[in-house]
Amino acid sequence: MSSSDRDNIINQPWPEADLEYLGRCPLCGSAQRTLLYEGLRDRVFFCAPGSWTLHRCGGCKSAYLDPRPIPESMGRAYEQYFTHQNEDQHAPASFLKRIKQLVKNGYLNRKWETSLSPASPMLSMLLPKSIKAFIDEGIMRHLPRPSGGRALLDVGCGDGQFLALASSAGWRVTGFDPDPKAVHHARSRGLDVQLGGFETLQQASDCFDAITVSHVIEHVYDPKELMANCYRLLKPGGYFWIETPNINSYGHSEFKGDWRGLEPPRHLQLVSWELLQVLLDEAGFNHVAPAAWRPLNWIVNGASKAIQFYEDPGRMKLTYFDLIKNQFVELRNRVDHTRREFITLHATK
Length: 349
Fold this sequence. Notes:
Elements: H1 3-10, E1 19-20, E2 33-40, E3 52-57, E4 63-65, E5 68-69, H2 95-112, H3 121-124, H4 129-139, E6 151-155, H5 161-168, E7 172-177, H6 180-188, E8 193-195, E9 208-214, H7 223-233, E10 234-245, H8 250-255, E11 269-270, H9 273-283, E12 286-290, H10 297-308, H11 320-335, E13 342-348
Parallel strand pairs: 6-7, 6-9, 7-8, 9-10
Antiparallel strand pairs: 1-5, 2-3, 3-4, 4-11, 10-13, 12-13
């Protein structure tokens, strides 16, 4: 898509009839707020028209869009979303990509007992701790080892990449997603994925040993309802994992309106570590704790810098100076989890 075509899409207004005006925070109900940004546009996937305003709540300190698209119209914001970009499994991979695949699959097979190929367990032993942490938390979500056909639910599972890995590791997997194209891709992998939301499991309760929610809460219209449903579906003692962009991150403080985590209008609200912990506590979850550090600053900030220069954020724009600076930021992130790019929490029921 040419830059003129992209501009033509995102500079069009979102239809007024398809907007809803809140006037108060959707998380805590407070009407106190300050203007954070206005004139935000979709410079991530360049498919959503409209100019968007983000407010900072004076009560819970979340950030939220107001006005925002009504649910019935939100589909147009996902026309070019990443879950639609199903890779051609038969396309030849570059030499570097094949090596990366060998090493990653070798590590997954060795630690998580998956059955991925091609794989090189020997090469995977050379991986540094930071990359192992990235795989353990970012890819496998630190799942417990399954036994006896334990059941896993992935909320907003997209095209099923994570479910396929969890299934290979021995989990009995289920997922749902509101996006028909993503569900089609997931089902093409042979996965049990339903089209829709929690209504697909309306009559169920206490039936999953683990539930994961990866970058979903920022997309939903009622985050508290999401938490309540996850608690209802999780078995007592079950494992819960959630991740979402952190409005208080170092990256946001540096890039502001160009920060990759904003992603209007798909991201309806963004929370802090403290607020997400409160939401989990209110839903009834126990033993809420932050996940171990993993290196994310260079990825998010590389995408943010590309957005800053009005380029494709999928092609990270980083200089050698940026890479050096990110090393110092990651040192701080190890110590202060409240400023990391993503909020990642574990909990139990």
